[in-house]
């Protein structure tokens, strides 16, 4: 019971913004895990491939469109060994057959993918050795991160999918611009866009900073939250912003000839948009 109480204390500690430093300082031999599940990858250039997801608990941000606010608080403490065992169990049918597909630049990609997400996974100290151990086990590893925390310590074998927060998120002032300096071609940079103001800001960042020369750029349309997903802790969309439909967003991308990949969240078209574990 002592371990359960400590995990709950850690989760409560990470509910409020601005506590990521203290969260990272905690023990790195275990993590608070919200869920582990097997599904198709719903976003990024890896979209559609089978993937084991490890969703960690806790996030210092409160983006207006966050669809996983339940991961702010809910979770159980697991050892790194237990997480690796659970990932291996779910991946076993693919691994036993040594199933692979061609990846970018012709490299062989081993299936299933393994993605560590959140919440904000880099808010827990244990995520760095977990990522390293997943790579050591031969997995193709993805990391979804908000871009508010330092990505430099992440194992170089990991494919980092990093956000730049747009104005409607309410968290644009949390962008860690230094992260752009360490992005590699194997990483991906994502803009989540729900308003005209988001689009214009993202366009200016992409062209002004020549971000497409760093790594692939993802443009993701904000899928409306269901009533159950509208957590009261989320930031409001700034007043006066004008919402964009996916068609309007795609048409603007084409008209401006942006060198980006437009995407929607594939899993939300397959399953109900608020269903967990998919």
Describe the structure.
This protein is α/β, with parallel strands linked by helices and 278 residues long. It has one domain: TIM Barrel. It contains 7 helices and 11 strands. The strands form 2 sheets. A 9-stranded mixed beta sheet has the order 3-1-2-6-7-8-9-10-11. Strands 4-5 form a two-stranded antiparallel sheet. Strand 6, helix 4 and strand 7 form a beta-alpha-beta unit. It starts with a helix and ends in an 8-residue tail after the last helix. The N terminus is likely disordered.
Q: How many strands, what sense, and barrel or not for the largest sheet?
A: 9 strands, mixed
Biggest sheet: strand arrangement? 3-1-2-6-7-8-9-10-11
Using the alpha-carbon principal axes, give the shape: globular
- If you average the pLDDT, what whole number results? 91
Topology order in helix (H) and strand (E) letters: HHEEEHEEEHEEEHEHEH
* Radius of gyration, CA atoms, in whole angstroms: 18 Å
CATH superfamily: Aldolase class I
User: Unreliable runs, pLDDT <50, ≥5 residues?
Assistant: 1-25
Number of domains in the coordinates?
Answer: 1
Distance between the termini: 30 Å
Kindly report the CATH topology. TIM Barrel
Keywords for this structure?
7 helices; 278 residues; two-stranded antiparallel ribbon; nine-stranded mixed β-sheet; disordered N terminus; 11 strands; single chain; TIM Barrel; alpha/beta; globular
């Amino acid at each position: 019971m002592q371990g359960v109480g400590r995990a709950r204390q850690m989760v409560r500690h990470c509910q409020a913004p601005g506590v990521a430093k203290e969260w990272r300082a905690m023990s790195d031999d275990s993590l608070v895990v919200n869920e582990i599940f097997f599904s198709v990858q719903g976003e990024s250039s890896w979209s559609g491939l089978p993937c084991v997801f490890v969703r960690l608990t806790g996030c210092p941000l409160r983006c207006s469109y966050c669809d996983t606010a339940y991961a702010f608080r809910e979770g159980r403490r697991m050892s790194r060994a237990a997480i690796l065992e659970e990932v291996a169990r779910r991946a076993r049918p693919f691994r036993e057959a040594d199933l692979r597909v061609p990846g970018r630049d012709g490299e062989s990609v081993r299936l299933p993918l393994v993605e560590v997400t959140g919440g904000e996974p880099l808010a827990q100290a244990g995520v760095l050795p977990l990522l390293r151990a997943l790579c050591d086990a031969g997995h193709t590893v993805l990391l979804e991160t908000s871009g508010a925390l330092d990505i430099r310590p992440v194992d170089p074998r990991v494919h980092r999918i990093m956000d730049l927060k747009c104005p409607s998120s309410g968290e644009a002032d949390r962008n860690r611009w230094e992260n752009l300096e360490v992005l590699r071609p194997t990483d991906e940079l994502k803009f989540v866009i729900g308003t005209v103001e988001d689009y214009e800001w993202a366009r200016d960042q992409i062209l002004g900073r020549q971000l497409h020369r760093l790594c692939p750029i993802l443009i993701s349309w904000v899928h409306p939250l269901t009533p159950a997903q509208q957590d009261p802790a989320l930031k409001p969309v700034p007043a006066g912003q004008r919402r964009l439909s996916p068609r309007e967003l795609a048409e603007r991308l084409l008209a401006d000839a942006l060198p980006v990949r437009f995407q929607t969240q594939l899993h939300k078209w397959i399953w109900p948009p608020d269903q967990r574990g998919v």
